[in-house]
Design goal:
Radius of gyration: 27 Å
Number of helices: 1
Shape: elongated
Number of strands: 12
CATH superfamily of the largest domain: Immunoglobulins
Oligomer: single chain
Structural class: alpha+beta
Order of helices and strands: HEEEEEEEEEEEE
Strand content: 35-45%
Length: 163
């Protein structure tokens, strides 16, 4: 059957159908994306984030750093090979990272030692650290559906950087 012998209605449907298909696909994507964004925003608002306050003079690796917030007490320490984190409560996960103003390292996920309140990760020595620029330790963790974070200065000399 040839196109010119079809009825006008079938001709119109054949020409319009691809445009309706593409338009429907775009509209469905638009509404689905909007719905997903609203759901993610709603979930983000339900999860509160709290800053951990440094409650001791932090001199890692010579002395531990103690952080506090809402009854949660975190002790961060290091030796020549590992970072250690101890908590007064069980934690769901811990990520740490080091940063200088001009560079940021990627986050390092710590591993549980015995239970969810004791964590460890090996120290990765960083190259090209500048001794005259402060080095920042960043910590992000989750406990009881609450997220906590901290950022505090540590010496750029030590097992993690320049000697």
């Amino acid at each position: 059957m040839k196109f010119h012998s079809l009825s006008p209605h079938v001709k119109a449907a054949t020409i319009i159908a691809p445009f309706l298909l593409i338009g429907g696909y775009i509209a469905a994507d638009f509404f689905q994306t909007s719905k997903e964004e609203k759901q993610l925003t709603s979930e983000a608002q339900k999860t509160a984030a709290y800053e951990l306050e440094l409650s001791s003079d932090c001199k890692m690796p010579d002395a531990p750093c103690v952080l506090r917030s809402d009854g949660l007490v975190i002790t961060m320490k290091a030796d020549s090979k590992n970072y250690y984190l101890d908590s007064s409560e069980e934690l769901d996960g811990v990520t740490i990272g080091l940063a200088q103003i001009d560079r940021i390292t990627r986050g390092i996920t710590m591993q549980k030692i015995a239970d969810s309140s004791h964590w460890i990760t090996p120290i990765r020595q960083l190259s090209n650290l500048k001794k005259d620029i402060p080095l920042l330790m960043r910590i992000a963790l989750e406990s009881n559906k609450k997220r906590y974070y901290a950022e505090f200065p540590i010496s750029p000399t030590g097992p993690w950087g320049t000697e």
